[in-house]
Give the backbone structure.
Amino acid sequence: MSIFCFGLSHRTAGVEVRERFAIPQSALAEALGQLKTVRGVTEGVIVSTCNRTEFYVTGELKDSSAPAFFRNLYRDFRVEDETNLFRLCANDSVRHLFRVASGLESMVVGETEIFGQIKRAYQCASKAGTAGRFLNRLFQKSFQVGKQVRSSTAITRGSVSVGSIAADLAGQTFGDLDGRKIMIIGAGETSEKTANAFRSRGANQIFVSNRSFERAQVLATLTGGRAIHFDDWEPEFRDLDILVSSTAAPHPIITLDKLAPFWRARRHRPLLMIDLAMPRDIDPAVQELDGIYLYDLDSLRNIAERTLAARKQESESCHQLIERHVQEFQSWTERSQALPLLSTVAIPGALCS
């Protein structure tokens, strides 16, 4: 028995691939149920965010490749997808999760949103009964590591979220954001951080639209904006300068057909559109309209990489701290596996072949 991680991330796959494998929160329980049926799997936790979909599992899977594993779960798996996947085993899986929880594997190194996303993924697996003794221990340990990395190193100093990158991009495009009309579609955590980032940079005309008007009102109140009913956002489009979308919709909600009727009334005013959703909210075809400047998560990567240099000097401290915890977890695993067979001597490093 060993711990494996099968997955893909922004490091291995573009946004058009990641969105096909993304599992929304609403479908996570069903996906965990399907995961339990995969031959050889004894425990499982699924971490699916805008930048990664990763399956942390235990069991007899040493002969299972990443493509073979994914074919058990995705009916539309394609041969060309194989190059986007990775498979990690034993300490490599443990180390990877600790790095993810610490924000070191994020598109924006040091961001903190991933920590809460991993917690929710673990809680969902616990509720579904797919996280057992080993993954319970592993994920609890990852929370400890993530907190310690952030509290004892400067890796988060000056760190930003994708929402603040979006606000920075808007500032670079328009200069002063005072008086610019900004609409945020979606009312989740990413939308809240985005709204706050715009507010902190001088934006004072922020509109929030969401399928749940009550949630839009809550976010608008928190960020000093104004809530708009979801069916009413299109008429507001004529006067927008910036549109940021981050919903959990399974398909694009902003399409060329929807925008074209409003475009002539804008009289060629430029519009900055930023898609922070996974799957994407904005159909890339909207770029056929002159004056639209569309950025998705992959487009923001180059901007995010500029913030990496300022924190590279902290990477060695983080690595040393994480490596110590990896060795501690390996020691616990070896002791746990040796308990049923007291006559068996655990061999370090022999957890996976």
About this structure: The chain has a mean pLDDT of 89. The radius of gyration is 22 Å.
